[in-house]
UniProtKB/TrEMBL annotation:
InterPro entries in alphabetical order: Bact_solute-bd_prot1 (IPR050490)
Identification of the protein by name: Sugar ABC transporter substrate-binding protein
Keywords: Signal
Superkingdom of the organism of origin: Bacteria
PROSITE patterns in the record: PROKAR_LIPOPROTEIN
Lineage, top ranks: Bacteria, Bacillati, Bacillota, Bacilli, Bacillales
Signal peptide (UniProt feature, chain positions): 1-23
């Protein structure tokens, strides 16, 4: 059958109209006919908001985004916090909050994500792994090119290797982490400096060079000088002390026990460190402290307040902690002449290494509901608000310090000066108001990440000194690559690692406290392998070999 030329032209025209209509109706779930963005985020029409690197995000029209909110008991949510109005004044953005008590936040997060009812923005996420397989979380690495302040921080601070730790087996990441220009000081040991010096220990002159053996020798002098039953009776059930020492011995322990693996950067492979001679030496060190009466065996079983009470009474002279508790501890010491000092974490057989190696904080997941409901253009707009609030210097200053001229001022050198009537983090002791509880700033939902200057700005002079000592006397560690297991592989590995590491943890305390003799070390290593250490390590290396090209190896 033959068709006329005019009939063919009409048919082509109808097909073009049909294709155009289909294209228009497929541009985002909202169905609006908005132009698609180009690679650099530009659109055919100017967006209805201001954004950019070091530029305040501002929507022409009011906009509200749903967000999960963890309500902390120490600074409970208030509708009239200055935080909310300050955000709205600058950006024209408000939040529709799903408020949950801090203690229930993780459970509620799981419930909402798994049911498909999650709010658009899900901050304060420490581990996103369990949510990836649900399909309810956006692979946000596909979208970060639209976030100029985020990308600037990645480039300027060299965060590429840090971000590899967040990659999943598809080569993408699903959380926007808080990023710091420098690593923090982390946990260490708070000591009675006055007692150590009375025992003949030159604390400030020597502590920067201490290894764990030097620290042992210093504590032994204190025991001999004071005649105390124990020099250290630790809190956190020993988890902090075991964690920070493990770094210097090349093993894992305490809070950082994880899967017991260590990564050899030269050989580019994982080994199971917690059955090695290094691990035996690590356990032997703590066993020596127990055996010689330097460390209280109750350190691994007692509640925190029991350990603190011994320290406050002057029965012991060392306790693990972070610098932020120093002022509170000082106020509770029975001997008001007590001089407290946070030592730099001691070094060990593997060198004098920084304990805190990651510069990433908890972060923000984005619900797929945001993309489905908003459509691509409005979704990008929301990302650019997030980019400003969490990743621009202006947004970070607002979330941490508040409003210049109200909650803080800047001195001639650009340093933050907190208003004298406001207390925060050891600053302005005795002030009548608190930066977080009364104004909503400096809370755990928003105030994480930023430049070195911003990180230092929230520290007292003593904490700045501690962090500077760590930065200047301790070597930064190379980051281990992630094990980018698929959900199925991850489940298999979990079935091995859970009983394996439970056994390692149990035996750790038995060796340290003397319930198990080191003469039976071979029995321990044989049982570790029987519990699957080799299988777990082999699986880890196989997965790494399959995925290392994605990681740049």
């Amino acid at each position: 059958m033959r068709f006329s030329k005019s009939f063919i032209m009409v048919l082509l025209a109808l097909m073009l109209v049909f294709m155009t209509a289909c294209t228009s109706n497929n541009n985002g779930a909202s169905g609006n006919n908005t132009p698609a963005p180009s690679e650099d985020g530009a659109t055919a029409e100017a967006p209805d908001y201001a954004f950019g690197e070091d530029q305040t995000f501002k929507s022409n029209e009011p906009v509200s985004y749903s967000m999960m909110y963890s309500d902390h008991e120490n600074y409970p949510y208030k509708k009239d916090w200055r935080l909310w109005s300050a955000i709205q004044e600058r950006t024209n953005v408000t939040f529709d909050l799903s408020i949950t008590a801090r203690t229930e936040y993780e459970n509620q997060k799981s419930l909402l994500v798994n049911s498909g009812d999650a709010p658009y923005i899900i901050p304060k996420t420490y581990d996103e792994s369990a949510f990836v397989a649900t399909g309810q979380i956006v692979p946000v690495s596909d979208w970060v090119q639209y976030m100029p302040n985020y990308m600037k921080a990645v480039k300027d601070w060299g965060m590429e290797d840090d971000l590899k730790a967040k990659l999943k087996d598809d080569g993408k990441y699903y959380v926007l982490p808080g990023m710091w220009e420098i690593a923090g000081g982390g946990y260490s040991y708070i000591i009675r400096k006055d007692v150590f010096e009375a025992a003949g220990v030159d604390v400030e002159g020597q502590q920067g060079n201490w290894t764990y053996e030097d620290f042992y020798a210093a504590m032994k002098k204190v025991k001999e000088h004071t005649g105390a039953a124990y020099v250290i009776s630790d809190q956190f059930k020993g988890e902090s002390a075991l964690n920070i020492a493990a770094v210097q011995y090349g093993v894992t322990g305490g809070w950082g026990l994880s899967n017991g693996l260590n990564y050899d950067h030269d050989k580019q492979q994982f080994t199971f460190a917690n059955a090695s001679d290094d691990f035996k030496n690590y356990l032997g060190y703590f066993n020596k402290l127990i055996t010689e009466g330097i460390m209280d065996p109750e350190s691994f079983t007692q509640e925190d307040d029991a350990a603190q009470a011994k320290f406050f009474k002057g029965d012991t002279y060392v306790i693990s902690g972070i610098y932020q508790v120093l002022a509170d501890f000082k106020s509770k010491m029975q001997d008001k002449n007590s001089e407290l000092y946070m030592i730099t974490q001691p070094g060990g057989p593997k060198g004098k290494l920084q304990v805190e190696s990651s510069r990433l904080e908890n972060g923000i997941m984005i619900s797929k509901n945001a993309l489905d409901d908003l459509g691509e253009e409005e979704f990008i707009k929301m990302l650019r608000f997030i980019d400003w609030f969490w990743y621009s210097n202006e947004g970070q200053m607002l979330s941490l310090w508040g409003v210049e001229g109200e909650t803080y001022t800047l001195d001639a050198d650009g340093n933050v000066v907190l208003s004298p009537e406001i207390y925060y983090n050891g600053m302005n002791e005795g002030a009548t108001k608190q930066l977080n509880a009364d104004f909503g700033f400096a809370g755990g939902m928003f105030a994480y990440g930023g430049s070195e200057k911003l990180r230092m700005s929230k520290m007292t002079d003593g904490e700045k000194d501690f962090v500077t000592r760590v930065q200047s006397t301790r070597e930064s560690r190379k980051l281990a690559p992630p094990i980018m297991a698929s959900p199925e592989e991850n489940e298999q590995m979990k079935l091995i690692s859970t009983p394996l590491m439970d056994y390692v943890k149990t035996m750790t305390l038995k060796f340290i406290t003397g319930q198990e003799s080191f003469e039976k070390w071979d029995n321990y290593t044989s049982q570790v392998e029987a519990n699957g250490s080799k299988r777990f390590t082999d699986m880890s290396n196989d997965i790494f070999q399959k995925t290392k090209s994605l990681l740049g190896y």
